[in-house]
C-alpha cells in the first residue's frame, strides 16, 4: 500500500504497454478505518528486495535501516521532510538541495534520496 498514490512510477512514462502491472488499481481508504501499520518504509520495498534500484544505493545499508516508525504520522513527517507537502510528494518533486543538508555519514538518508531520485 502506498500513501496518497497508487504506486511509484517513472516520471514521463507515457509509453504504451500491454503489461497489466503498468495499470495499477488504487483503493481509497480512510486512515482512521485502518489499524496501526506493522511496517512503514519510504519506498517500494518489493522493488528494493528484487534489485530494481541497482547499484545506485549503498549495499551496506539494509532494508531495515530505512524503516520509519510504524505510524501514519511518521509517513507524513517523512513527506514533509523530503517533499515539503503532499502535492510535491504526489508529483515526485523533492525539496531542492536536500542532499546538501545531509552529512556524508548519513548514508540512510542519502540512499533514500538516491532511490527517490530514480523516479
Write up what this structure looks like.
28% of the residues lie in helices and 0% in strands. The chain has one domain (20-117). The longest helix has 11 residues, at 72-82. The protein has helices at residues 45-49, 72-82, 86-91, 107-117. By secondary structure, the protein is mainly α.
Give the helix level as a range of percent.
25-40%
How many strand elements? 0
SS element count, helices: 4
Class by alpha and beta content: mainly alpha
Low-confidence stretches: none
Give the distance, in angstroms, between the N- and C-terminal Cα atoms. Answer: 18 Å
Strand content: under 5%
Shape: globular
Q: Describe the largest sheet.
A: none
User: Based on the structure, what is the oligomeric state of the protein chains?
Assistant: single chain
H/E element order:
HHHH
Give the helices and strands, then pairings.
Blueprint lengths: L44 H5 L22 H11 L3 H6 L15 H11 L2
Defining key terms:
119 residues; 4 helices; mainly alpha; single chain
Task: Give the structure's gist in a few sentences.
With 119 residues, the protein is mostly helical. It has helices at residues 45-49, 72-82, 86-91, 107-117. The chain has one domain.
Amino acid at each position: 500500500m502506498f500513501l496518497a498514490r497508487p504506486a511509484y512510477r517513472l516520471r514521463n512514462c507515457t509509453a504504451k504497454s500491454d503489461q497489466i502491472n503498468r495499470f495499477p488499481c488504487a483503493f481509497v481508504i480512510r486512515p482512521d478505518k485502518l489499524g496501526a501499520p506493522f511496517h512503514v518504509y519510504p519506498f517500494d520495498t518489493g522493488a528494493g528486495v528484487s534489485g530494481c534500484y541497482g547499484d545506485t544505493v549503498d549495499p551496506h545499508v539494509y532494508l531495515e535501516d530505512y524503516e520509519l516508525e510504524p505510524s501514519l504520522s511518521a509517513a507524513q513527517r517523512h513527506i514533509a521532510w523530503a517533499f515539503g507537502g503532499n502535492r510535491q510528494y504526489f508529483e515526485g518533486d523533492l525539496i531542492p538541495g536536500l542532499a546538501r543538508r545531509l552529512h556524508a555519514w548519513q548514508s540512510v538518508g542519502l540512499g533514500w534520496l538516491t532511490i527517490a531520485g530514480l523516479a
